[in-house]
Amino acid sequence: MYYLKQILHQAKLSFIREIIVDHQLIDNIYEICMQYGNDIFLVADENTAKFLNQNVFNKISHLIIPAPLVIPARDAHLYENCDSTLPEGCHPSAQTLGSSKVDCKQHTIQHFRSKNWIPVPGTGMTSNASLETVNLVRNKAKDSDLIVALGSGTVNDICKYASYLEKKDYISFPTAASMNGYSSANASILVDGYKKSFEAHLPKGIYIDTDIIANAPLRLTLSGFTDFICRSTVQADWLLSHLLLGTEYNELPFTLVRDLEQTLLREYMQLTQKSTDVILLLMEALLVSGFGMVISKGSYSASQGEHMIAHAMELVTKDYLSLHGEKVAVTAITMANLQEKILSIQNPIIKPTTLNVEHVFDNSEFIKILEQKQIMQQKIGGIIYKEWNNISSLIKQNLLPAKQLQKMFEDLSIPHLPEHLSWNKEQYCKVVDLAFATRDRFTFLDLAHCIEESKIL
């Protein structure tokens, strides 16, 4: 991984002892693990455990968690001639969530199965990175020197957080280029039905078996592509907050991935052909993106408004079946359109939201965030009046057009509209309207709530 080595050297980063990329690394997993400790505890899921033979399991203590069966991509004709603009009437300040929460989990499962492109859920132990599974790993690995993650997002989050809490080393054997969390120090854990981000730590080593990564299910690879390519909406949101409120902003994470992004924008169709070179390039981009979060001391460089909407949809629908990257594809299109429309306004007039916090969320944390957001909105009017032309010009320099994102997702047959994930349109509009109050980050979702031209989507 040429770019990664150069970047780590350039940025003087030494977070991880080694990153090894080679063929058939999985055949030597026991010998690799023994370099870190004598008592090893390995976590895999029902899919990734198939990469190991019984001899390895006889030598290593392990836990195999349930895993959804990732079915190949759905029929492309389902998404022909789709309009990727947000549904009519879906704009901030238009609606509130109230008591119209709909539990559409069963409907979603049936819809996904009928379209033949969503995983079939396992049974028994949860296949999510739940706190219960984290605690199970902690208990079983009490006497171990090393925790080993053999899998993608769920397995890595479980091992990352469990090892952090137990103050043990862990190493990662990624099995798909599906997300940027392999090299981040955050873990996304399901607690009491809600996903929360927790501080964790980095693996001591990352071992990438090229044969496994290149032959991973296409849906997982494409999920990783969308998780990376939302860089555009992320950077716009983070820069907006910096320019309006003076919050900390670091250009380095985006500079480090620029060349990788440009190559992927040219070669993205090779992902569908399972090109080893391009998939490894994507894996490299995801690892660098993860390091960017370490540099940023948080997920600021990889998660902004698009992730806030995706997480808010999870809060409402409890939809943990569709892949993270598929949700982000939908919400990145929403954010890209929102950002373009707001940036096209010549002289926006600021009028802070009057949304009644007590009638929105039955959650004291969200009520507190919303109150803080209202204070933030009151601070930006003068800056926007004086500096909007310069601010909008700076942000536009880093944007990927919404139409370009839409075309790529359509070319790759990636879900990119709410209905593609069986999300109810009306419900999605309500969530977009209120997602700004679910996290203490100032994004274009906030700006949409306090611009008088409120129907901007």
From TrEMBL:
Presence of the UniProt keyword Cytoplasm in the record: yes
Question: What's the protein name?
Answer: Iron-containing alcohol dehydrogenase
User: Which GO molecular function, any one, fits this protein according to its record?
Assistant: metal ion binding
One example of a Gene Ontology biological process annotation: phospholipid biosynthetic process
Keywords recorded for this protein, A-Z: Cytoplasm, Lipid biosynthesis, Lipid metabolism, Metal-binding, NAD, NADP, Oxidoreductase, Phospholipid biosynthesis, Phospholipid metabolism
Q: Name one Pfam family in it.
A: Fe-ADH_2
Q: Does the keyword Zinc-finger apply?
A: no
Quote the cellular component terms of the Gene Ontology held in the record.
cytosol
